[in-house]
Specification:
4-stranded antiparallel sheet; Alpha-Beta Plaits; alpha+beta; Arc Repressor Mutant, subunit A; 148 residues; elongated
Length: 148
């Protein structure tokens, strides 16, 4: 995929705010035709910049009330296989690759502490994880990026 220009970034930002926003509305704001915006979004999807369109449940509907961050130290420097294998875990909200030998930082959302404990134990039991180094439970959110 080519480097993203200012217009692509604006389109992405608008879709992150509301993925159902009409292309006509986006086109008016970025100064392009609706068909040009549609073509750009398709190219962003085909280029892997936009992976999927999704929804976020309101707090009243979201059953996952506990968020935590786990640091995983892999046994190998090659993280590709580990990331591929843990990506489908439904509890994992985000996965971050850390610099150096720090491994991965993962954000998890679970219903209760028993579910968190079970997840940590299942990760520890994996043959490709040397250690679950830290488990930090979020007590309260100070500032949340609703676009992520």
């Amino acid at each position: 995929m080519k480097k993203l220009d200012k217009t692509d970034r604006k389109i992405i930002t608008m879709l992150m705010e509301d993925s159902r926003r009409p292309y006509r509305e986006i086109a008016d704001e970025v100064g392009l035709s609706e068909s040009t915006v549609r073509k750009r979004v398709i190219k962003l999807q085909e280029g892997g910049v936009i992976d999927k369109f999704t929804i976020r449940l309101g707090e009243d509907l979201d059953e996952k009330k506990i968020s935590a961050f786990l640091t995983l130290i892999p046994k190998s420097e090659n993280l590709k296989d580990l990331i591929r294998d843990i990506r489908p875990y439904p509890e994992l909200a985000e996965i971050f690759s850390l610099a150096g030998r720090c491994g991965l930082l993962i954000k998890v959302n679970v219903s209760d502490l028993a579910e968190l404990d079970a997840l940590v134990e299942s990760l520890k039991a994996r043959g490709d994880i040397e250690q679950v180094e830290s488990v930090c439970v979020v007590l309260r959110s100070i500032k949340e990026d609703r676009n992520s």
